[in-house]
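For the sake of transparency, this paper describes our internal protein records without simplification. Because each token names a local backbone shape, the row as a whole describes the fold. One such record is reproduced below, unchanged from the form in which we store it:
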Amino acid sequence: MDKNTVIGLLIIGALLIGYMYITKPSKEQLAERQRMQDSIAQVKIKEDSLALLQIAIQDSIETAEKKEKISIIEKFSQEELDSLTNLNLEEQYGIFANTFDNKEDGFTIIENQKMIVKISNQGGKIASVELKNYKTFHQDPLILYTNDSLSVFGLELFISGKSIITNDMYFVPISETDTIKVMDKEMKLAMRLQATEEKYIEFLYTVYPDEYMLDFDINFVGLQNEINEIPNSYANFRWQVNVPSLERGIDWENNNTSIYLKIGKDIESLTATKAKDDFRTSGSADWIAYKQQFFSSVIIADNNLSSPIVSSEKIDDPTGKYLKSFSSTFSFTLENSEKQTTGFKMYFGPNKFSTLKKYDLKLEKLVPLGWGIFGWVNRWIIIPIFNWLGSFINSYGLIILLLTLIIKIGLFPLTYKSYLSTAKMRVLKPQVDALNEKYPKGKEMEKQQAVMALYKRAGASPMGGCLPMLIQFPILIAMFRFFPASIELRQQSFLWAKDLSSYDSILEWSTQIPLISSFYGNHISLFTLLMAASMLISTWMTSRNQAQTNAMPGMKMMMYFMPVMMIFWFNKYSSGLSYYYFLANLITILQTLVIQKFIIDEKKLLNQMETNKKKPPKAKSKWQQRIEEAQRAQQQKLKQQKKR
């Protein structure tokens, strides 16, 4: 530090000290400031005291009002109080006021071989549905929703000018027993909201033997005059429920839980990864589905669901009991007839492709098999083979092994063609290098033409190895969608994997580790590690076979980087998927070794290509002629530019 800098710093310091001394408040200013602070404090104390006094006065007033009301009520007889209550109910509910006379919070159970449906007197609603052939991951009974998680299930409409919300009202079950067993034929349960014997709203449930689908009819009987007091009357149906967690891995389950609608030929859905989402249309829907990872609750219209509004909101539940709150509302018109029936069906069951497809309602779209060609591969190739193997093999680990073998054997001709093309390019590499040295820089077009002519005479193609791999790509992606969506793998164990539809784990921990817990998880999947290791070996073998080519270093780095990324991407994925990719990589390694050692002899291959060079060239196709003409035109253009 030089002399001038030191002097400058000292001057600045002196100025700061002088400024602080000059601006320092006097004793009188300090005393005045203290008096102001004391005054403000006194005012604050008075304001707080006044607020407390106001609260005390309000409490006293409310207490006095309560005492006054109690004293007034005590003057009435019980008969007079009942009369006042009835008047209030009649004012609110009109002709349905008497439905509150016998409030019984009872349930009627109707069950078949597949499900137990509990119907509540309050609201006449489906209060819970249990699937008898399935369990949760924790081996508890699998209940799609319970009466506690069901917020709303019922009608909202106007009758005689009164707003009727059936969810809060009490229905009467028309049944001699509170448990109905469905065995050989369908059974019906009528729940009636009765104004009189001749006037009522009826929810009629029909359950069939060994079925996940039931009929749900809403009947309006004898209410035509009351309904048509308002022209063009309509009713809204609202269904709101909290969806419970049923599977292992709540994040993955949440990302596969959403609301789906069929509108015309299209399937619409809310975004599962959003915390809140909604959808509405002035048109109509054929069905609305509350879809979870492996199970769905669906309401299906015999005609249509008009002006549907659906919404989904993620529930921040620290216990992990509930995933999301689903809500849907739709409407239908009310007719001027003595009896009107509006029919629906309801499906409560698994997202199993074959089960959903048999209803011919496009419900199989609830199984996310992929779009376009990927879905086509799953529907027409993978699923038939998978179901055929499952018809006589009990172990799904063995089924996946055989499925992988069948696919790899079927694709072997393409694999062989790809490897043969790579081998041809490899043995021609010295001749390609010679052409590179022959043509100096600036004659890239002539060099390219010479290289392509060499490939053509030898019977090799630079794209020969890419096309077979491109054809295999749809199967690779199809399997990526198939395994996580297959309910057949749910809770099927194999080796150390407890559930092939979820991740496998050889080590778990509960402590949240920054970044690692978020991106990797709190467990280690062995099948994912095996898949990544086999992919790395396969990549190394492929890279070694192409070591003498002009492969870009960046591309090689990417090839080796991918297996490492797979460890993070697939750690939370279906163990069945990781197991399949591991087997596919392993079989690819074995196929490569067999082809390299026993099928393709590179010396014979080179001799064969040298022989091909001596054969007269084949007639050029019109496409080849056009390509060559374009190359010549480009070459001529480059020459003209150089002359300028």
In short: Confidence is low (pLDDT under 50) at residues 1-6. Residues 25 and 31 are 10 Å apart (CA to CA).
